[in-house]
């Protein structure tokens, strides 16, 4: 295989992003010379060599102060600072290909790629137009969003990008099917999922017998937002409190709606015996906590965005051998149904979540379904398989 010089365009500070790191490391380990372009709000070193890539950060404008410098480094395709940073890096390293992560800087990558005469790949990890529509319908947009996060403008940017890049990486089959409706030929798309490596798969779990009075530990890992179904989890916990299937919720993560969930738990009378908020913890620690749980919860609300992506936490739960309760968002439900690793419930339905926990009340049944998910990671849904696709495309 010919070694390539690759520039990966990431629109935030780096480190850290799990998909960017995994992608760059996989390409580096395949023998390519990888350079990652990043923002620099923290005024970190201009160039830094990491195991996965050489990071090229935006030159800080110290004269402007941190706040103004950060604002002037906003990742928009019309920002000349980004055009200059990407172009200078491509020229300096003699790049053979550009990979643009998501839409914000994809037009910039296309313009630089055309000038350099090299191909551009779009790593479409998110359905940006759907995220922007959700932002506006939930009334969470700000005045600046009329310019940089307007849903109609984002849709136009997406249509331009998908027609002008040389290849597109998606995270789920449903995302590729959506792009086909926009006129993108299937041959120009490949699915590279957000899967864990095989070496992250936990050893086979023994059946954990239920002791009298022991609560069923249900873990949620991820952003704390209403659309993630955490209100329904809390309601389900309250419904089960005085039953043989009493539950302890272990909530790991932080987010803009965290205070709402604390207030809701208090209104429901849920004490620390039944719900524990751990906040943000390091990823390795979080995965240890997930591995100690009985059930992994993914009760996300169904919307256009979630119907075209698979949250990382689904594969995280499967990798440690615990069964999953997911909503009926199309990709997640498809995986859970196909693998037989858990329960699928209607979204926004706390009684259905409670009933799913009851159905998973038998420790032997939980062990069987958890092992089905663990085996699926080892055999199918792993980063080694997705790496083969990634490397072949490059």
Structure description:
The chain is an alpha/beta fold. The chain has helices at residues 18-29, 65-72, 80-93, 106-116, 128-137, 145-148, 151-164, 173-181, 230-240, 258-267, 283-291, 312-319, 330-339, 350-359, 363-379, 383-393, and strands spanning 5-9, 33-38, 47-49, 54-57, 97-101, 120-123, 167-170, 189-191, 216-221, 247-252, 275-279, 295-298, 324-327, 342-345. It has an eight-stranded mixed β-sheet, with helices on both faces. Strands 11-10-9-12-13-14 form a six-stranded parallel β-sheet, sandwiched between helices. The mean pLDDT is 93.
How would you summarize this macromolecular structure in one to three sentences?
The chain has helices spanning 18-29, 65-72, 80-93, 106-116, 128-137, 145-148, 151-164, 173-181, 230-240, 258-267, 283-291, 312-319, 330-339, 350-359, 363-379, 383-393; strands spanning 5-9, 33-38, 47-49, 54-57, 97-101, 120-123, 167-170, 189-191, 216-221, 247-252, 275-279, 295-298, 324-327, 342-345. It is α/β, with parallel strands linked by helices. It folds into two domains: 5-192, Glycogen Phosphorylase B (Rossmann fold, 3-Layer(aba) Sandwich); 199-379, Rossmann fold.
């Amino acid at each position: 295989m010919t070694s390539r010089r690759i520039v990966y365009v990431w629109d935030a500070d780096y480190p850290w992003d799990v998909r960017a790191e995994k992608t760059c490391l996989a390409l580096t380990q395949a023998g390519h010379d990888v350079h990652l372009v990043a923002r620099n709000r923290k005024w970190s070193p201009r160039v830094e060599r990491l195991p996965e890539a050489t990071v090229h950060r935006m030159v800080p404008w110290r004269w402007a102060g941190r706040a103004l410098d950060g604002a002037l480094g906003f990742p928009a395709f019309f920002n000349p600072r980004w055009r200059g940073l990407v172009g200078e890096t491509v020229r300096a390293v003699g790049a053979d290909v550009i990979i643009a992560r998501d839409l914000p800087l994809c037009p910039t990558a296309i313009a630089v790629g055309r000038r350099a005469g090299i191909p551009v790949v779009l790593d479409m990890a998110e359905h940006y137009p759907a995220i922007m529509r959700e932002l506006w319908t939930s009334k969470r947009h700000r005045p600046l969003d009329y310019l940089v996060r307007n849903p109609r403008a984002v849709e136009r940017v997406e249509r331009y990008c998908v027609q002008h890049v040389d290849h597109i990486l998606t995270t789920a089959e449903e995302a590729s099917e959506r792009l086909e409706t926009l006129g993108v030929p299937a041959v120009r798309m490949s699915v590279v999922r957000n899967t864990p490596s095989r070496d992250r798969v936990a050893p086979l779990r023994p059946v954990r017998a239920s002791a009298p009075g022991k609560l069923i530990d249900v873990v949620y890992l991820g952003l704390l937002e209403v659309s993630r179904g955490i209100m329904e989890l809390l309601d389900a916990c309250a419904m089960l409190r005085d039953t043989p299937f009493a539950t302890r919720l272990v909530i790991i993560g932080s987010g803009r709606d965290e205070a709402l969930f604390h207030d809701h738990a208090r209104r429901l009378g849920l004490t620390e015996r039944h719900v524990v908020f751990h906040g943000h913890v390091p990823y390795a620690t979080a995965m240890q906590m997930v591995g100690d749980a009985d059930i992994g919860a993914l009760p996300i609300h169904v919307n256009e965005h979630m119907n075209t992506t698979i949250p990382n936490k689904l594969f995280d739960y499967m990798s440690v051998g615990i069964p999953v309760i997911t909503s009926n968002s199309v990709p997640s439900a498809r995986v859970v149904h196909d693998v037989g690793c858990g329960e699928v419930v209607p979204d926004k339905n706390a009684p259905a979540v409670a009933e799913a926990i009851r159905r998973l009340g038998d420790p032997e049944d939980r062990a069987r379904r958890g092992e089905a998910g663990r085996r699926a990671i080892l055999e199918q849904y792993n980063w080694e398989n997705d790496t083969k696709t990634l490397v072949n495309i490059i």
